[in-house]
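Q: What does the assembly look like in three dimensions?
Context provided by user:
Components: two
Sequences:
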Amino acid sequence: MTKHALSTRLWHWVNAAAIIVLFMTGLNISNAHRYLYWGDYGFDPKDAWLAVVKFPGWATIPGYYNLAVARDWHIIAAWPFGVGLLFIWIAMLVNGHFRRDLTTKPSDWTPGAVIASVKAHSPAGGAAHHGYNAVQKILYGGVFGVLLPLMVLTGLSISPGFEPAAPWLIDLFGGRQSARSLHFLAAWGIFGFFVIHIVLALADWRLIVEMFTGGKRPDPASAPVAVPAPAPETLPPAEGAMDHG
Amino acid sequence: MVDIPRRSLLAGIAALTAGACAKIGESETGKDVIATADGWHRAAHRALAGKQGLVKEYAPEDRSPTFKGNGSKTVETPFYQDQLAKGFPDWKLTVGGLVEKPLSLTMADIRALPQRTQITRHDCVEGWSAIGEWTGPQLSALLDAAKVKEEAKFIVFRCADTLYGRSYYESVDMVDAYHPQSIVAHSLNGEPLPEKNGAPLRMRLERHLGYKHPKYLTGIEAVASFAKIGDGKGGFWEDVAGYQWYGGI
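A: Here is the predicted structure of the complete assembly.
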């Protein structure tokens, strides 16, 4: 069995491209009015709860201020992002990825579980590579269950043409400017996840390869509880050796 | 192989993506994609909300204390300044183009029509919002009075203000033109429109961003196509800066 289902891998890379475009065009859009407000209205910088920095060209798409082009690409990339999120949720519910890897038990939220997770992720903790540890479950669950849907819903709710479809959505977020503020905050939440995710993935490049190839899931029945220092592999696998199912 | 530091690699990927987007956007295919997406967004919104779906209307206490003026904040012609000082006694709004009965209306004519008052939120393309109470006749009433011909597909709004040496104008399709909340507003918060907000008349097209709500209105024109107007993109900001013609997103 592959470690990453085809649906996961497809979604992962399409979503990665969409998120990069959305984030960098979003920073360009932010430069148009660099003030965030709570409530329904807000236009006077005096009322802003946050004056956002001006994002430099290297951080934005395009690499110079152009609201029209940034908006064009932002709302185009929103389609694979939004539809993709629906797709991966359905896939995760169907193939068990959600139940197996993202649902937490009360014990996952304890300091002990967090320490165990960190240990498992350290170079010495090679044995725990199958399955998600508590911190991973909480982080991935937070991204899939909170940040990504929040991004889609706040994005929809700040669009005046979409508003008649769900006028309650804007009230749910506490007003249009609140929805815009939450859109900004959630974007940085996703960025924070993105940084941790990339740093940890780069620590072991095989993880990135597996996100293309699918990798192999260790058989839980035969997985050793603790692995001694791996013996150097000198013998080629016997001909006709069974591959992991 | 050269060992590229990871940080530069990431910055490189980002730069490539940024460059690619700009390049794609300038190509003919890129323009087609953007134009197609513009149509999709409109179709998706209307499929979800219905053609007559209303935006939220607010209570009087929800109004913002002031209403920001943006873009043109006045018209610098002697005629406009004179009319502004006198309360627009000679201001005319024409309704023409593909209509059977062209109209030329005074401010008194417009105030004498059945009125709609709505407290709505104005969302600028830049991101800010203001809330105000607008009063005026529905655009549909004017179009019905002028008897728009079958072949008309768009309504173009002509304005007195100029920016960068060009006349402001905008356009919408018939669905938005006949939307119940599309009104020709002459009042804001119970007072005649302030100069900065488009005195004496501005459009309210509530399912669109602010640049689609033209101010200093002088004419309403039914057309089959806006390809020959301005640079042919359907509005001032569409021509000048490439903003989407569909301003609902």
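Follow-up: The CA atoms of residues 62 and 131 of chain B lie 7 Å apart.
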